[in-house]
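WARN retry 2 of 3 for item q-0093 after timeout on previous attempt; input resubmitted unchanged.
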Amino acid sequence: MSKPAEPKWLLLIHQIPPKPNYFRVKIGRRVQRLGAVAIKNSVYALPKSDQSQEDFEWVVREIVEGGGDASVCEARFVEGLSDAEVEGLFNSAREAEYLELANEVRRLRSQLPRGKKGDDFTDELESAIARLRKGLEEIEKVDFFAASGRDAVEALLVDLEEKVKTSEVA
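OK item q-0093 returned
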């Protein structure tokens, strides 16, 4: 008899009180920032790791303190979703985030005026680029399965930084 496969996933299963509404939103945003994907209503998955377990444990504490109930369990999918399909959920979520960030970079690039605008304008641009870079880093932290889109965003940011650095717009 073969030994069962090791669990590949951690699942957060929760029940949150319907009121107050902000609490549900707060937990939803927290889980999203961790990079978790929804498997079902109130069931979220992360690839199994010590960091994922710690992250989910913090969310469980927050849910319980807010009057809800939550559990974290190790899991492997036997029926229904396959591991590849769950990985696809992660990649779809990250690809959407990369696309949104790429669109933000393109919007900023399209707003660049020609000619000199002074130090204040350059500072504003550099601040916006730093914010976009931070956004890319945040997505990369939760890109567990190397979703497509990262390289395109990086290229757009490098191009934008080069435009600013060569004083084409500043």
